[in-house]
């Protein structure tokens, strides 16, 4: 079993839709949770960063962590074609960073 | 890209040959990392460094070695490349805390 599981998609939505991306993790020791965005043939870029449980909002993006169910979510409001990318979730604790395999998102105009 | 460059950006090599990939940062960050990215597996940590000459293994370190003789450079070496090492290799640095990592542009390696 992978430490972090993520549905690979692909996920296709119309412009303006609300997008929900999700991951689960197995190691209860993870304390930090991140979302990265990766455009085709580019390096991942850090999008959101959360410590422990709770919500964090940044513009159209909301990251949510539920440690009781080991569930990580990223919501994108008013999605734009420029949001089309692969989204990677990640969990970290004590020198151990684990990534999900990524969900490929396409936002159609 | 947080001031990270990787070289070469693309490489094709043959099985059994040694390969060295270079990661260079411009801002003297302490922690540097090497990952590989493969379809279905996401990013997996190969090795990381927490200072000059200080390195440790990651999740998939077999077949790889690293060196860090200067703060700004972190080298990844495949002593004898195999086809299973065909991948995209990313270098990363931690800017403040280890959990916030920033990635370079990647090196695409094809081992024939």
Q: How do you describe this structure in short?
A:
The complex is a heterodimer of chains A (109) and B (112). With 109 residues, chain A is an all-beta fold.
H/E topology pattern of chain A: EEEEEEEEEEE
- The fraction of residues assigned to DSSP E strands of chain B is over 45%
Q: What Rg of chain A, in angstroms, do the CA atoms define? A: 13 Å
Mean pLDDT of chain A comes to: 93
Order of helices and strands of chain B: EEEEEEEEEEE
Unreliable spans of chain B are none
Overall mean pLDDT score of chain B?
93
SSE class of chain A: mainly beta
Summarize the amount of helix of chain A as a percent range. Answer: under 10%
- Taken as a percent bin, the fraction of beta residues of chain A is over 45%
Instruction: Catalogue the unreliable spans of chain A.
Output: none
Between the first and last Cα atoms of chain B, what is the distance in angstroms? 30 Å
Textual characterization of the structure:
- The complex is a heterodimer of chains A (109) and B (112).
- Chain A is an all-beta fold and 109 residues long.
- Chain A is built from no helices and eleven strands.
- Chain A is globular and about 40 Å long.
- The N and C termini of chain A lie far apart (37 Å).
- The model of chain A has no long low-confidence stretch (mean pLDDT 93).
- Chain B is mainly beta and 112 residues long.
- The relative contact order of chain B is 0.33.
- The termini of chain B are far apart.
- Chain B has strands at 4-7, 10-13, 19-25, 32-38, 42-51, 54-57, 64-70, 73-78, 87-94, 101-103, 107-111.
- Chain B is built from no helices and eleven strands.
- Classes of the chains: A mainly beta (109), B mainly beta (112).
- Chains A and B meet through strand 4, strand 5, strand 9 and strand 10 of A and strand 5 and strand 10 of B.
């Amino acid at each position: 079993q992978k430490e972090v599981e993520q549905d690979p998609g692909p996920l296709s939505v119309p412009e303006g839709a609300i997008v929900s991306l999700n991951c689960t993790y197995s190691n209860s020791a993870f304390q930090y949770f991140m979302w990265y965005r990766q455009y085709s043939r580019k390096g991942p870029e850090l999008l959101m960063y959360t410590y422990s449980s709770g919500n964090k909002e940044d513009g159209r993006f909301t990251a949510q962590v539920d440690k009781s169910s080991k569930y990580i979510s990223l919501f994108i409001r008013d999605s734009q074609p420029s949001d089309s990318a692969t989204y990677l979730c990640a969990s970290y604790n004590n020198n151990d960073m684990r990534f999900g395999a990524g969900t490929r998102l396409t936002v159609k105009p | 890209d947080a001031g990270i460059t990787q070289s070469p950006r693309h490489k094709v090599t043959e099985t059994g040959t040694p390969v060295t990939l270079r990661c260079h940062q411009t801002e003297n960050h302490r922690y540097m990392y090497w990952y590989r990215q493969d379809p279905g597996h996401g990013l997996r940590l190969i090795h990381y460094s927490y200072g000059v000459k200080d390195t440790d293994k990651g999740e998939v370190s077999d077949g790889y070695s690293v060196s860090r003789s200067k703060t700004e450079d972190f080298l990844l070496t495949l002593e004898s490349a195999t086809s299973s090492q065909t991948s995209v290799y990313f270098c990363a640095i931690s800017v403040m805390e280890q959990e916030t990592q920033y990635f370079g542009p990647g090196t695409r390696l094809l081992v024939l």
